[in-house]
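Hi support team,

I submitted a single chain yesterday and got back a structure, but I'm not sure I'm reading the token output correctly. Could someone confirm the output below corresponds to the sequence I sent? I've pasted both exactly as they appear in my results page.

Thanks,
R.
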Amino acid sequence: MKTSKKSSRALEEIMTKREIEKVFIPRLREITSNFFEIVKYFIEHKDTCGKEFFVTFTKESDRIESFLDDHGAANNRTFFYFRELIAAIRWFTQAIFQNLHILSRYDFYELNLPPDKEKDFLERLRKNLSFLLDTLTIFGSEIITEGESLGICTKKNEVSADFVNFVIPYRKMLPSDIELEQQDIGDRDRLIGFLLKFLDLGQDLEMFSNSKEMEAIITEETLENFRSGYHRLQSTYDTYIGNTDIARRLTILNSLRGHISVNLHLLEIARSLIHFYERHTERLTKISEHKPGLRKVHFHDIKKGVKSFILPFVFYFAKSGKVLAEEIFKNLGTDPDEYVLESVAFVISPYRIEDFHLRPVMSVTQIAAKYSANIDLYFNRKRYDLKSPLEMAMAIPDIRERLATESARIIVRGPRKATREIFEFFKQCCGAMQEQQLVQK
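Hi R., thanks for writing in. Yes, this is the structure output for that exact sequence:
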């Protein structure tokens, strides 16, 4: 059977100069017309723009960024700067929306902060919002100037206000339960399981906050892991906990849900700003050599704000949420020490190396096995299951290798009752000393 040959075209072709002028620029002018009106309105009324405004601002930015990326603007000398400004506006509008959302929902979170802490938190939220708005104003002014130079933004004195009275679309979501086990268990057991997940995430944050390398690991990937963790917790709470009889009886759960929500939105802000910082700061800093208006942006304050304001409050709410969880366990008639997690760091000196070998140390697995919750040992950035004889058989030689030359720092993480018993075991077995005690000495 003969097949007729048909002409074919490449999936991608490079635009000619004429195509850019006659097709691409008119199309870009068309899809950015509403966007530029939004930018101009924001510059004139930024202090009165609400959450609804920034929902639309973000959507418009995202739509235009997708169009530019589809046409390779990120690698084009003429449109590169315009595309970077669009990306900057997108991430800053997202951060502003989350900041405004926390302020608008604050009373519903029932965080019950001490007066001084509440005042500090709200003042710093407003200060952070002001910084974000001022920075977005700079990007807005720059993109209007750039749009005019590209011939896609017309110089108009009047700004249409047709889009000002936004209403966030009303929507109700189906339960996010596709990854959750469908088990016929009681409300009490389900709540305990939920609390353990909440405490586990809080313990991850505590270890992150105590890391000597925290500056280096404040990355988009790290923040996204924590953000998605709180998002799953909030979805799980709303799906399986919020409408139960036990939740209606234990009103303290409202406050726990508030702690989850406020950390979710704080991490949304942090993730957006660090994404911008990692992906766009270096490029825009170089461009600022030729764009004087861009020099007004305090790029170094972006990561500084995440480190000095947002993350410290994330750590604070994780810690105060742990206290709430302890109260909930008491209300359930359960010993909190059996469930509330903590991490204990201790040090073993090199001269005790002969005490630290398989036969005496392996019995720690029997102590760990008495508890239902997971118990882990961390050494040299590795995690070992303390209940597993096999994993401990791998950990002990690694620790002995360190003890041959210097002290070994070990972290045990698990229920408070378990970590204390395990630390006492290591103390008696091989002279372990808590790291906090060593610092005090």
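A quick pointer for reading it: The mean pLDDT is 90. Let us know if anything else looks off.

Best,
Support desk
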